[in-house]
Amino acid sequence: xxxxxxxxxxxxxxxxxxxxxxxxxxxxxxxxxxxxxxxxxxxxxxxxxxxxxxxxxxxxxxxxxxxxxxxxxxxxxxxxxxxxxxxxxxxxxxxxxxxxxxxxxxxxxxxxxxxxxxxxxxxxxxxxxxxxxxxxxxxxxxxxxxxxxxxxxxxxxxxxxxxxxxxxxxxxxxxxxxxxxxxxxxxxxxxxxxxxxxxxxxxxxxxxxxxxxxxxxxxxxxxxxxxxxxxxxxxxxxxxxxxxxxxxxxxxxxxxxxxxxxxxxxxxxxxxxxxxxxxxxxxxxxxxxxxxxxxxxxxxxxxxxxxxxxxxxxxxxxxxxxxxxxxxxxxxxxxxxxxxxxxxxxxxxxxxxxxxxxxxxxxxxxxxxxxxxxxxxxxxxxxxxxxxxxxxxxxxxxxxxxxxxxxxxxxxxxxxxxxxxxxxxxxx
Length: 428
Known about the structure:
The chain is α/β, with parallel strands linked by helices. Among the domains are: 2-137, 2-Layer Sandwich (N Utilization Substance Protein A, Chain:P, domain 4); 143-208, CATH 2.40.50.140; 350-427, Orthogonal Bundle (DNA polymerase, domain 1). The chain has helices at 2-19, 27-46, 86-92, 113-140, 210-220, 222-225, 255-260, 265-273, 288-295, 319-326, 331-340, 370-378, 384-388, 392-399, 403-414, and strands spanning 52-57, 62-72, 83-85, 101-106, 146-154, 158-162, 168-172, 187-197, 201-206, 229-237, 241-248, 278-283, 303-307, 312-317, 343-348. A hairpin with a 3-residue loop joins β8 (187-197) and β9. α2 (27-46) packs antiparallel against α4 and α5 packs antiparallel against α8. The model is unreliable at 1-13 (pLDDT under 50).
């Protein structure tokens, strides 16, 4: 019996030692959980815990349990949990009488190993819930903030990271920059995108979010964190290119220059973090026409027509500015549309000779696949001659076609102008 009691006592002490130094759980909450766990076990054993007083000391890893029982005649004892016989009561103090209340300390280890195991299981369950809630609340408050974590495990669809407290964070492939490559143990910076709470909290990080770019600028540019410069809008295609519109509340501060830094000193660090993502910083303005023109930089717009209801902008440019406005693979115009929230259609300025014969591209549907015609329209081409007068490489990049496809299209278009010396070269 002595051995059993000793083992039970040791198990109880171990139970407290296991839970007294928990992270992210305040002392009062821990005391409350421990008391609730004791009461739960006692209630299961005796049917009630109302006559028990429990005092928990998590610092020392122990507790004190007091049980109150009513004194009854020896032959009237029915419930040993809530009642005590007069003879037993007088062994505690000789002056006890029937009907009085006796309060005495209880050694929880005397309840047996099963009781201690139930206590451990109850504690573990409640502590786990607390830790989940604490983790969820902590990272919910950190949504939109940059965190650093170390790569722990690399999977096909996501990467598992551990923060400084050993909490698990997830960086899905879809939230990684296409050229991202990490090794185990490497430190990674990302923004907290969202926190999912199904069974266990899932903290999802992102390196592709525009918010990540914004937070990087806030860290690198003191004027932004001081409130002198505001980031108004961000458009981003991760790993490729981004446009960011900034505004200064101090006329003495050039917002673009402040963000870029001397010889690009401030923006270079951001570019490296984003795997050499090309970043255009432009001045924000509430004048939408001017804002669209700035968003299409480095192209220079000759004329702009707005349809505010349809949120459509028709932009007219000189021949040599069209490819600049569209950009490689159409990135520049796509980002400009994202930044301004306007659909931007690019048009070449018409030649001065209005009598020149030309043919609309739509007339070639049937000879040229519809998706190619649509892609040419999206790139700002409306007529056959506007395509024929554009360099092959420019066409290949802006419309995303193979060189062989470009040559086939040029031949089909040139056939309609076979009598004209200018386009006869395409038929040879």
